[in-house]
Predict the 3D structure of the following.
Amino acid sequence: METTAELVHLERTLVDFGDFGFEGNRHAFRWVDIKRFGPVAGVHDRDVLAALIAHPQFRDTYDGAGARDWPRHGQWWVERITPDSYAPVPAQAAVDLVEAWTQQHGPVPPALLARLEREVHAPARRAHARYLLVHPPEDARHDYGPVHTDFHELVLVDRAADTVTLLVAADD
């Protein structure tokens, strides 16, 4: 995929549900992986998405191996993901998606809710634009793709902060 934008990976944050002491570990195997990139000033959102997809940090299957020089992202072949694979979503829909996923198995500790508010919900509300990965077709799954029960991916374009954030909420 060709793009005129070039992004720099700035930081990665992991919100690991296992760090929050769930009773019986019923939520412990879930997490939110947050990767922040920049700059995005003067770059159209579609080109930001293309640059994100082209970035080496995008090549992460979220199975614990980290980003690698391979043709996979999440459950899919990278070549099957394009800017058209993402649909714009309103701020509240992005927040609602993560909240529903977070609480699908019952109540969560207040400390986790506070961390998600700070790391996920507030940035989603603040972003200039939000995009949801609309799962590619079944034949786009790579050879060991279905390792996650749930996999939600949002891209947050924050013009004021001059960043784009790749946010993946999933389970092991």
User: Anything to note?
Assistant: The helical segments are 45-54, 91-102, 110-126. Strands lie at 8-16, 30-38, 72-73, 76-77, 86-88, 129-133, 151-158, 163-171. The chain is about 25% helix and 25% strand. The radius of gyration is 15 Å.
